[in-house]
């Protein structure tokens, strides 16, 4: 049996975590042979609800769970963490401007960045899910100067998975047959799901679908999918977001087997002329616990325009929190 690893999850009493924690505990993220110690963070008003989650976790008698720690102190929850999934964040309240939301979350992620810096394993793998995920990730990263910036990533995998599913349905194939999909930029409505390199059953997707569908249906459907789910379900994506977080961390930790995935990563040194001080989603492969940018892709005029738009939004978000980073 392997030595247990420590997995910290924030927003642990929230709806995404209600799917996520149980899948981590079942071994879906790190493998069926990897024991875990769960370190769950919440804010004081949600600690009672979190105790209910812990009771259910205990009732599952998961063989891989070797300990459960709960806390409302990030210094406790991140102690020696090998993995940190930052799910908890402040939702947008009535009348709240986007800049207010950025600032309210900024306050959370400065504290959590410092707590990771001071307490987590130096190799901690951090995934930020809580929105605005890319900018929250940038804030956490900047507040953790002793950790490698490459340890910090933002979740774009839900957008990536949504794209693959839409293509599979359109081409009457299966999502496992879709490869080399890229979602660039911000996890927001400016994200750019790009099929220029994508293949389905080994053949170019752009030959299998018409350009009008791609530009006027596919891209807006993926960009607006979160809103469509809220409209249908009366609540935001939860199980699919948890599943994407599992996919992201599993591939990062255990490798993507040469498959391209989309991850929001620190843009320093990127090969696509993107501003070097953002968390921007790029095409990535993972091997030996490291992520690597897919380089050398040709960027056409339409792609450049779409990539610039999402970059501009990220620059604007960064400006709104500049005093926190
Ligand atoms: P919920 O409101 O159900 O849960 C959030 C939990 O976080 C609450 O229990 C709250 O008490 C806790 N929390 C708030 N501040 C905290 C802090 N400082 N420390 C620890 N816990 C804290 O939201 P849920 O539906 O679970 O969504 C969580 C976040 O994921 C939201 O910001 C949401 O917008 C974001 N999403 C991100 C996605 C992505 O692809 N990156 C997709 C899904 C989701 O929309």
TrEMBL record:
Lactate/malate dehydrogenase N-terminal domain span: 5-152
GO terms classed as biological process: malate metabolic process; tricarboxylic acid cycle
Domain Lactate/malate dehydrogenase C-terminal: 157-322
Keywords: NAD, Oxidoreductase, Tricarboxylic acid cycle
Keyword Oxidoreductase applies: yes
A Pfam family matched in the record: Ldh_1_N
Coiled coil: none
Origin superkingdom: Bacteria
Reaction equations catalysed: (S)-malate + NAD(+) = oxaloacetate + NADH + H(+)
Catalytic EC class: oxidoreductase
Residues holding NAD(+): 11-17, 105, 112, 129-131
Amino-acid positions noted as binding substrate in the UniProt annotation, renumbered to this chain: 92, 98, 131, 162
SUPFAM superfamilies recorded: LDH C-terminal domain-like, NAD(P)-binding Rossmann-fold domains
Catalytic residues identified in the record: 187 (proton acceptor)
EC number from the UniProt entry: 1.1.1.37
GO MF assignments: L-malate dehydrogenase (NAD+) activity
HAMAP family in the cross-refs: Malate_dehydrog_2 (MF_01517)
Described function: Catalyzes the reversible oxidation of malate to oxaloacetate.
UniProt xrefs under NCBIfam families: MalateDH-SF1, PRK05442.1
Family under the similarity heading: Belongs to the LDH/MDH superfamily. MDH type 2 family.
Protein name in the entry: Malate dehydrogenase
